[in-house]
Amino acid sequence: MRVVVSGTHGSGKSTLISDFTMNHRAWRMLPDPYEEVDLANDVPGAATFFAQLRYSALRLLEPQAAPVIAERGPLDFLAYLHASAELGRPGEHAAGFERGIALTRRAMETVDLLVLLPLNQQDTIDIPADEDLELRAAMDQSLLELAEDTELTAGAEVVELVGSREERRASLEAIVERWERGAQHAARATR
């Protein structure tokens, strides 16, 4: 099984994945591409978003022996490119968005479950004022819109999780358990 946890910066992705993997040790955790991609320029822009999109897509296309939970997928960075273009930020955001569509679709074909962590008041996640709050809000909106495009999500089940830290973890565990039961049932049926 492959799960991607998506959301704008400061939406609780790292916390949810950490909480989930503490109880699911067999799962391989793929960290945020921001931590993995060597970026000469730490300032977020079209080139950095596209590099992270490409990295996140390629790692989803790699064969995996164990179930995988990834912090962010290519759809996240497609949303950052879209949001940046919508905000009129300088750079080749629209061109990166267009280039990233096919790669995103291809990678999303390997994903079983896309978990969206939308911004909302009840989650009470504090974010420092020095973060780009305008981009954060715009990316959140872009991500939710892009996730409605079934061609981009390529058949992955899409769920939005809200609530407390514990509620989100419990919801994710219940969905994964349902998937695992379904896979076991399918395996027995093919015997």
UniProtKB/TrEMBL annotation:
Pfam families: AAA_28 (PF13521). Residues 2-168 form the NadR/Ttd14 AAA domain. This is NadR/Ttd14 AAA domain-containing protein.
